[in-house]
Amino acid sequence: MKGNELKPRIGIFGRRNYGKSSLINYLTGQSIAIVSDIAGATTDPVRKTMELGGVGPVVWIDTAGIDDEGGLGALRVEKSLAELKQTDLAIILLAENKLDEPERRLINECKKNNVAFRLLYAQADKVPPTPEFLTGVEHEFDIKPFVVSVFDYSRRDQLLALVLEALPESAYRHRSLLGDVISPGDRIVMVTPIDSSAPEGRMILPQVQVLRDILDNDAVAFVCKETELQRTLDSLKTAPELVITDSQAFAYVSKIVPDDVFLTSFSVVLARAKGLFEEYVKGTPTLDRLKDGDRILMLESCTHNVTCEDIGRVKLPKLIQKHSGKRLEFDAVAGLSALERPVTDYALVIQCGGCVVTPKQLASRLAPAIDAGVPVSNYGLALAYLNGIFERSMRVFNK
Fold first, then answer.
1. Of residues 180, 183, 310, 184, the one with CA closest to residue 248
2. Which of 41, 151, 325, 376 has the most CB within a 10 Å radius?
């Protein structure tokens, strides 16, 4: 269930012909990236998954040169910088005893986007670093560059140990979704509607993630469709400790579940675990302040087939339109695709649960809106608000 999107991402960044592709091959022990003496051989990010001791699977990313030139080169540079914003750890290459604008740009981008980074002096076999250069870099950035040659495998384990030390724990030690609100033996009812947008033969990822978390916390899960919810509740001798529903069934489920039973949704649970929950709580009431002509951005973390029952592109926009009574415009952007217009054009940004992305990717995705003062919300919290159970959907987290 853990695709590349959920694995820690370690990016290699630097100028053309500084040995980024060779370093990827050196670290993974495989010939993954194309190595060439021709500058700019890497045009698009190349990814390779590898097991890293103490962490598990990580994704190594080889990027285009930060000093690429020309019209296409500028696009490649921007793509590399966009990749950096989604990275958990950036390895910035130095070589030839140079540290100028390209390297400083990368370092500044890391600091600006709260990306952990380390400096690595590459191709030491070609141009060895001078002591004065290494001392100057360490003095300026308080980071001692690691010196390596891809022909010297005696340093590989030391480099991997440095990567392991520098990789933020938040990238691979994921907090429990429900561990602080449920106890061993608690009975949790999961309401999972099956409609045309449900994948054939399986549950959607948020439901699977929540189910696993319930089991990890030694609680007991009961899974049913919304049409079987009343029967499921009646079959229990006493009320369950918590009901978790798909957000789009909030209106139906909230009428069945007694008010003294905690009720929330998969999307709300994920929103809280992924971070930015307070931003969502603060931004969601904007739904009451929309005006004619306002534009709303629906952000989806995954790419999926759109149906007439799609929550983000069909159901939620209809509910918002009805709630506001205004003439509104909606744009939907999937995955990590670039926005087609400035984020400041939007009165509200509504993010999905983010089940397929890391907290770092989610924070990076929403940072432009938050920095610009554009309110942000989440599918689950927006649906709870529109159904009049905003406070109720969060009550379990405040108990």
1. 310
2. 376
Q: Which pLDDT score, from 0 to 100, does residue 1 have? A: 37
Q: Which CATH superfamily is domain 4-171 in?
A: P-loop containing nucleotide triphosphate hydrolases (3.40.50.300)
CB 122 within 8 A of CB 95: yes
How much is the pTM?
0.73
Higher pLDDT, 397 or 55: 397
Residues 191-246 pLDDT 10s: 998 865 666 777 788 899 999 999 999 999 999 999 999 999 999 999 999 999 99
CA separation (Å) from 342 to 221, 265, 313, 351, 374? 43, 31, 20, 16, 11
- Better pLDDT: 312 or 76: 76
Rg value, the chain, Cα: 24
Please name the fold of domain 277-386: Rossmann fold (3.40.50)
Cα gap 91→13, rounded to integer Å: 6
Measured distance CA(252)–CA(228) in Å, rounded: 12
Fold match, 187-269 / 277-386: yes
**Domain 187-269: which topology?**
Rossmann fold (3.40.50)
Q: Which helix (H) or strand (E) holds 156?
A: helix 156-166
**Residue 357: CB partners within 8 Å, gap ≥ 6?**
5, 6, 274, 301, 365
For 82-101, the pLDDT digits (tens) are 889 889 999 999 999 999 99
Give domain limits for the chain: 4-171, 187-269, 277-386
* Phi, psi angle pair for 182, to nearest 5°: -125, 160
β-bridge pairing 46-52 and 56-62: antiparallel
3-state secondary structure at position 108: helix
